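thought: user wants a sequence for this fold. calling inverse folding tool.
action: design(structure=
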C-alpha cells in the first residue's frame, strides 16, 4: 500500500464521515514510528502490546503499509527502487550491485 492508496483511503473516510479514521491515517507515520515499522516488516506482532492501535487497523493492513514502504528503498549505488536490498556497511544495495561489489 503506497502513499497514494493511503491518500485515497483518507479521502474515502472523509467523504463517509469517518473523520477519526481519516485523522489517524493522516498521521500514520507518527502513530507507527519507523522502529515499529521495521518490526512490522519483520512480522513481529508483539508491537500490538506496545502501540495503541484502533481496532480497524488489522495486521494485514499494517503489513501492507510497512512493506510497501520497504519496497521504496533505493539502492545507493544504482539508484534503483529495489525489493531485494541489503544493508552493506550501512549503505543500501540491490542484490545486483552487491554481487558486483563482491566480484571486485
Ligand atoms: Zn543497485
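)
observation: tool returned 104 residues.
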Amino acid at each position: 500500500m503506497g502513499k497514494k492508496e493511503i491518500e485515497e483511503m483518507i479521502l474515502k473516510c472523509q467523504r463517509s464521515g469517518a473523520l477519526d479514521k481519516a485523522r489517524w491515517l493522516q498521521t500514520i507515520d507518527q502513530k507507527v514510528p519507523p522502529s515499529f515499522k521495521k518490526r512490522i516488516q519483520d512480522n513481529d506482532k508483539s508491537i500490538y502490546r506496545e502501540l495503541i492501535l484502533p481496532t480497524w487497523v488489522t495486521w494485514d493492513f499494517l503489513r501492507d503499509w510497512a512493506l510497501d514502504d520497504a519496497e521504496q528503498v533505493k539502492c545507493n549505488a544504482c539508484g534503483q527502487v529495489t525489493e531485494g536490498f541489503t544493508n552493506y556497511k550501512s549503505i543500501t544495495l540491490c542484490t545486483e550491485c552487491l554481487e558486483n561489489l563482491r566480484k571486485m
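thought: summarizing for user.
answer: Here is the designed sequence. The two ends are 37 Å apart (CA to CA).
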